[in-house]
Amino acid sequence: MTENVGLTRIAEATDPLVGTWATIPDASTAELLAGIGYDFVAFDQEHTPVSYGTMGDMLRAVDAAPGESESLVRVADDDPTTLKRTLDLGPTAILVPMVETVEQAEDIVEASRYPPEGRRGLGLARASEYGRSLSDHVETAEDSLARFVQLESERAVENAEDIAAVDGIDGLFVGPVDLSLSMDRFGDWDDEDFLENVTRAVDAAHDAGIGIGTLATSAAQREARLDWGVDYIVAGVDAMHLAEGAADALDHSRDHL
User: Fold this and answer.
1) Is residue 137 annotated as part of the catalytic site, yes or no?
2) Cis, peptide link before residue 97, omega less than 30° from 0
3) 81 domain residue, yes or no
């Protein structure tokens, strides 16, 4: 685990933070991943059936696991109610998908800040210890939360410099699959135009003094994408880890029958 730097201070990282993606809706899996020693566990509510109740249990599991893994939740969308309900669960960071404009980024910040700077409603939830520490929670909420937005289209990359400059946005995330799909270069990771867009996004983040990361699901991808100059990386997906480990065990066993 990278020492002394977490998601809320991602721009200060001297070495990239390494996390993993959690898509299986189960607290035991979350606890297992956190206990391995990842800097963070990224939970997905955009493409999975994970409910708010299950997400709460998964976040508790990360906190209960040995080590200091943090939690990042990719929300389903940028709706203020979605953001509010997710923040009430108390994750370290949120990742908002499909952000393409400055206006979207500004709305995300406003919806996730308490008044007078924003319009987030205050609830008696896990983030405030169910109301036991309301004053402390309101006072520290801004400093204890990191907001990341996902660039997944050419339009998003075109606006990356302005999105990165929005006050309250702490990091960008290049969604390589959807970005390549939007460019009609699906899965062509060596395409020159694709890599130019990646470089533009990375430069935009670093020029604004914020972090940027991406997903890599194989050893070859991890090596290549760390060379992009990212500040954090999601090193694989739990379901893929499970499938690959199971397939390797099956193949090895059959080879020795």
Assistant:
1) no
2) no
3) yes
> 21: part of which helix (H) or strand (E)?
strand 17-22
| Full domain range(s) for residue 176 | 7-255
How many structural domains is the chain composed of?
Answer: 1
pLDDT digit string (tens) for 64-87?
999 999 999 999 999 999 999 999
| Residue in 47, 206, 252, 256 annotated catalytic | 47
| pLDDT tens digits, one per residue of 10-62 | 999 899 999 999 999 999 999 999 999 999 999 999 999 999 999 999 999 99
* Closest alpha carbon to 233 in 206, 218, 212: 212
Q: Which two tokens stand for residue 226?
A: 């760390």
In a domain, 64, yes or no: yes
Which residue shows structure tokens 């997400």?
Answer: 55
CATH code for the domain in which residue 174 is found: 3.20.20.60
Task: Please indicate, yes or no, if residue 2 is contained in any of the structural domains.
Answer: no
Collapsed DSSP state (helix, strand, coil) of residue 138: helix
